[in-house]
Design brief:
The chain is built from three helices and 24 strands. 5% of the residues lie in helices and 60% in strands. The chain is mostly beta strands. The model is unreliable at 1-30 (pLDDT under 50). It has helices spanning 2-15, 50-53, 352-355, and strands at residues 21-23, 43-44, 83-99, 102-121, 124-145, 153-176, 179-200, 207-230, 235-244, 247-248, 254-260, 267-273, 279-280, 283-292, 296-305, 312-318, 321-327, 334-344, 357-365, 370-371, 374-375, 378-390, 398-410, 416-431. The relative contact order is 0.17. The two termini are 26 Å apart. A hairpin with a 7-residue loop joins strand 5 and strand 6. Strands 3-4-5-6-7-8-9-14-15-18-19-22-23-24 form a 14-stranded antiparallel barrel. Strands 10-13 form a two-stranded antiparallel ribbon. It has a two-stranded antiparallel ribbon with strand order 16-17.
Length: 439
């Protein structure tokens, strides 16, 4: 019990560092440098853990006895009865942004997740964890002229930071043989601040600043089910499904518009607020896994997030009349298709090489954002990784999960982004609940 409490304390400590990141002079906030994070709730985070990331986020139908798979809470029922699993992950990435002939590189590192799981009762597994939901972080500027003789120039500066995070408690229950159900109940919190500054080289034109802010403190529910069908002595198929209901986040996003007269230094401030203006969409997912003798595991996942049913507050001006109101045409439905697998010669083998796990994955994701009325960038990603067993005189059940991932984001007339990411996760698997006998 003391060790469980220690894990909870570590998770609480992680809450204070979850949004911190290290970066170069390009700056990063909450694990991203992307200008695409200036829209909506930001860039949606990869909520998988170390072993999933080697397969590019695959996992809705995976049932692992020695890993925590929070992608489908029904999987918790498969955790070993004598194990306490503690998994923590970090990542580092290099991104190249390209717009026309301009190229910019950005680097950052981030704390990714912290999860734990154990068997509470027969056929019932429990998990707790801290995972990200979205990240916001960018800073850039653009310059131009307002007239043909280029006597009046302007500079627009864009910056933002923040994001949303989840701490969850989940339960998975094997209802009957081969059929499990589960649920995650999450507390979701976070905030964002975005700023746009319009400045001119002449004093007769006012400097205009817009600040967009919101603070979220709410809940999130995720449900899952898995069914395993034996198809031979050594083979079986598992089907997994997930569902998350849509709901409002009880947040009141605010837009503050500040006009500053450079000559008189007089400031005029107007504040707009949209009550209960942020919400989450309904999310559904389905996955299929083929398992051959616990050596070869192949799977495919499909996920849909119905963002087109969700609005977002937008500041607009028409005929010199300004408004800040919900735009119902701001988002589009997000679809994600993932394929991947894992191979391990013998997870209980005596040699190191026989217990090494080889992983691969690929995915295709459509955007949830509309930018200037057009769909945002589509995403293609591939990954490969290893589950490296940690074998010593004290513990031979833990893993070091390492994977590399390449992500391409591309859309017509928008910025191209290529990201190379290294994910590192350590899974501590301790034999805590065994009863020792003295003879």
């Amino acid at each position: 019990m003391k060790k469980i409490c220690s894990a909870v304390v570590l998770a609480a400590f992680a809450l204070t560092v979850s949004a911190q990141s290290a970066s170069d002079t390009n700056q990063s906030y909450s694990g991203t440098n992307s200008p695409y994070s200036q829209y909506g709730l930001g860039e949606l985070a990869d909520q998988s853990s170390g072993f999933n990331r080697g397969m590019n986020g695959l996992g809705l139908a995976f049932r692992e006895h020695n890993q925590v798979n929070q992608l489908n809470p029904a999987s918790y029922s498969s955790i070993d009865s004598l194990s306490f699993i503690f998994d923590v992950g970090i990542s580092g990435q290099l991104t190249n942004f390209k717009e026309g002939n301009k190229k910019v590189n950005a680097r950052n590192a981030d704390f990714d997740y912290l999860v734990a799981g154990f068997r509470a009762f027969r056929h019932v597994g429990v998990s707790i964890g801290l995972i990200p939901f979205s990240n916001i972080g960018y800073k850039y500027s653009s310059k131009g002229y307002t007239n043909a003789d280029k006597s009046v120039s302007y500079t627009n500066t864009y910056r933002g930071n923040g994001g949303l995070h989840q701490v969850y408690l989940g339960v998975g229950w094997e209802l009957v043989k081969n059929l499990s159900i589960g649920a995650n109940v999450s507390y979701m919190w976070g905030d964002y601040e975005r700023a746009i500054t319009n400045e001119y080289n002449v004093a007769t034109i006012n400097t205009l600043r817009k600040y967009y802010t919101a603070s979220v403190s709410n809940y999130k529910l995720d449900f899952g089910a898995q069914y395993t069908l034996p198809i031979g002595k050594k083979d079986k198929l598992t089907v997994g499904v997930t569902f998350s209901p849509a709901h409002k986040l009880s947040a009141d996003p605010e837009c503050k518009v500040i006009s500053v007269n450079s000559t008189t230094n007089v400031t005029d401030t107007t504040t707009y607020t949209v009550n209960n203006g942020l919400e989450l969409p309904m999310m559904i997912g389905a996955g299929l896994q083929f398992n051959h003798n616990n050596q070869l595991k192949l799977g495919v996942d499909y996920q849909q997030q119905r963002w087109s049913k969700v609005g977002f507050p937008v500041y607009t001006t028409s005929n010199d009349v300004a408004s800040y109101a919900i735009n119902k045409d701001y988002f589009t439905d997000r679809h994600k298709l993932v394929f991947g697998g894992e191979y391990c010669q013998n997870e209980y083998g005596r040699s190191f090489m026989s217990r090494l796990r080889y992983r691969f994955g690929a995915s295709y994701t459509t955007p949830y954002l509309k930018i200037n009325g057009h769909d945002g960038p589509k995403e293609i990603s591939v990954s490969a990784g290893f589950g490296i067993p940690i074998i010593n005189s004290i513990n031979n059940r833990s893993f070091l999960n390492i994977s590399a991932q390449w992500v391409n984001q591309k859309a017509k007339d928008l910025i191209d982004a290529n990201t190379f990411r290294i994910n590192i996760g350590i899974t501590f698997n301790e034999r805590w609940f065994a009863k020792w006998k003295v003879e």
